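Summarise what follows for lecture notes:
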Amino acid sequence: MNEEKKNFGMTLGRTAILFGKIVEAQLEAANIDLNIQQLMLLSVLTTKDHLIQQDLADFMKKDKSAVLRAIDVLEQRKIIARTSDADDRRKKIIQITRSGLALLEQARIVEQEVITKLQAGIPEADLATFYRVSNLLQQNACKQV
C-alpha cells in the first residue's frame, strides 16, 4: 500500500481544514462576517423549504446544540429568521432572509474565487474524478452515521 492510501484520513481532513481556513481568510479580507460553518448553513437553507434545526443538524452532521448556537448568532444578525410551523407550533422553520441571501451571494463569489485558484493547473478529467469519488465517499460515509 502506498503512502497516499495509508494517510487517506489525514489527507482528506487536512484538505477540508485548509479549504475552510482559506475561505474564512478571504471572507474576512472581503469584510464578509461569516465562518465556513455559517456559510455551509446558509447554503443548505437555500436548497429546501421548511427546514428545521434538526434537518440542518442532520445535513451538517453536527449536534443540535452546535447548530442552535449558529442559528442564534445568525438570527441576531438578521441573516436568518425562525417562524413557527403551521402544522406543529413547537417546530421552528429556519429561513434565510433577504439580507442573508445578499450576504450569501457575496460569500459564494469569494468561495468560488478560492476554488478557482485551488483548481488551477489541475486537468478537468482529474477534477471530474475527484468529484465523482468524493460523492461516492460521501454516500458510503452517510451509510455509516
